[in-house]
Amino acid sequence: MNNPRHKKAAASVKSDVIFLFNHDAGHQVAHLAGIAGAFALREKAYRAIVAFGSDVTRKEVERLLTPEQIAALHWRSLALPEWLKTLTNGLNRLVPVHRILRLYWHNAFLRKSVAIVSTERTCLTLKRHWAKFRRRTHRPAFVCVPHGAGDRNVSFHPAFRDFDLLMVSGQKVVDQMVDAGVSTPERCRIIGYPKFDILRGRTPETFFDNKKPTFLYNPHFDPHMSSWFDHGADILEFFYQNADRYNLIFAPHVMLFYKKVHISPEYRVTRTRPDIDPKYYDAPNIRIDVDSARLFDMSYTLSADVYIGDVSSQVYEFLHRPRACFFIDTHSAAVPGSAPEYDFWNNGPVVRTAKQLIALLPDHAQIAAQYRKAQEQRMAYTADQSDPRPASERGAEALRQYIESLAS
Description:
This protein has 408 residues and is an alpha/beta fold. It has two domains: 13-199 and 390-407, Rossmann fold, CATH 3.40.50.2000; 214-382, Rossmann fold (3-Layer(aba) Sandwich), CATH 3.40.50.12580. Helices cover 35% and strands 16% of the residues. It starts with a helix and ends with a helix.
């Protein structure tokens, strides 16, 4: 005879949806934290779990959420045993071995979920691993919210084929995925750019006690494409010598100073990162930040007057409000008159050297006006704002709809 109490207990069991924060730095957190918080508040039929790689990451997630969202979420540490961390610390300085080990060490917990939502491709290691065990029927769906909306090939890497759902910022990203053959329109959901939700109610900050224009220099970390390795010192020296004219915020991609030696597996390039001359730290018109949360919470991209970069998709975060942009091309084989290698290089002049860049900087106001229309068009294509709701709420709804479709 069936026991109705057992039926009631079975009905109360919730499916786990895991929001995976497994990176060693915090720059990807804001792309997913809001979705996790919105999902936990509105979708009571599911247990929303934040799985975090470190206490620093957990604090960064909590910093972006409301007390109600924090309370509604469940929290699970993916920490490794200290002996294993110690054993692999040296190797982790070269390649992200801790990221992979955390997945395998906690794979039993992760496998029980109905869906794993991540901002990066590393989690697919588990999907490929689990595919080897054909007798086990349950495997969670893998959902990606790409961290950024850039135009390099990393944005439509072949590995994206292995995600079951892609929740993307705009039509541009859908077109990139489809054109590259790594997705279909049906596997994509446009939700807007979730990181922009943290800009609501914020205003630009003042980092210098003067009225001079403030430039943001934001080099990438990839040793093949970053301008820092060959041109960074010249750029800092220019602003050092022109303290009476300009301010500079040096805010590189957070991973640039995370390691001393950088390896680009894709381009088979290894380079040692140059350090910063100590004199620049004392300059009254230069702010140097290589490791704070401001590198990825949009404090600088919101507040600077002019952007200088190379291949970082943070330029789109800067262009949330159109302004002058300059790009340093260190690596492409483009011939004169040809289209730029990356579409975001159409948002401003592209140069090859620091000397060419410096010659253009006095004209930044005119350049801002010249490129404004192109910037607005690319932003509309990149980050959809047709729905007035926050992107995090759109993402939470799209995720729920997808999970429910799995059971139908």
